[in-house]
Amino acid sequence: MKGIYFKGLNELRGIAALAVLFHHIEQYKYRAGTVSLYDTCAAKWIGGLGKYGVYTFFVLSGFLITYLLFVEKAKNGKIDVWLFYCRRALRVWPVYYIIVLVSFAFVPWLAQNLPFLRGEAEYYSRTQVLVSEPWFPLVLFLLFLPNLALRLCRPIAGAAQAWSVGVEEQFYLLWPHILNQFSGRRLAGVFFGIAFLYPLLPEIGQIIDPSFGKICTKLVKIFPVHLMAIGAIGAFAFYMKKLPEFVSSSIFFVSSAALLVCFTIAKVSPIIFSIGVILFILSLVQQKGRVNLNNAPLSKVGRISYGLYMYHPLVMFLSFGLVHHYTNASGVIYNLLVYSAVVVGSLIASVISYRYLEKPFIMRKLNRYSVIPSGELSK
Length: 379
Prior knowledge:
Layout: H1 9-31, H2 43-76, H3 81-113, H4 121-132, H5 135-142, H6 146-152, H7 163-181, H8 184-197, H9 201-208, H10 210-222, H11 226-239, H12 250-266, H13 270-285, H14 296-303, H15 305-326, H16 331-369
């Protein structure tokens, strides 16, 4: 069976990863007291860019994995849950636990022993938290609860970004069971319930009791599974061939892309933005016009986007430490040094990780545990 591969999705992953990277660099500069885009009229846009990149990852994941599970269920009558868990572990766990190991064991040691890192006040203070309080956040990270750790503990230098990975893995513990249990209209009802009723829990809880409303608010923030469910709705419509013909047109592609850009600038709610993302994804997978997102460099960035997302905070800590300690650069020169160090360093780390760490596990996943070939290594 030919591997399922949708052109344009890697490119979208690449854009999302670069958006998060760009946001974090400007955020770091602002917190360090250097000139940043946060000091300009673009502050509102920059402030939301990282979150929108993560929301894009959520919707993409919900769409693609749900679609693959639909195909598997159609082929075999049911989803093999154990094999699904094995595939998720092989794809996600190696990099995740490398980040946990480095952040908890090596980053505090580096901060203590490398003089150029001691000047990075925010990150350095985060590393020192682990000197006195390492065990509780470590247990949460080891149990794949980084999103809970981010709420209950101070952010862990180099590992705070893992919260979104934890959300996805927690979501996918139940997802194949839901798809096995329901089908047709009932399944569509479950999708819509998670996507649009679940985020209303804070308002419903507030009506019942203000304290309960606060608990529901925290739950939705810690566990924003509704964004992946929006991706799943798109997968359902695409798989069931319920999409109108104009979705495949160049006009729809351009319109949905423009809408997504406008949503980013206007800083709309996560749900509204995610609806924009799934519309754009549907335009990509249905694309028949001449206008498209196909771009080889962006596709390569998308292929290593998991590593780029996970490694860049560590690279930022080292890069800013070096730039701030060894140069007095400012203005254009400072930004060139910072962006060159962070972007190039993150890309190198991600390429090495993909080639020597991730790819062997991906091959094992494809060869031993895949039921439906996904074309994951396709160009």
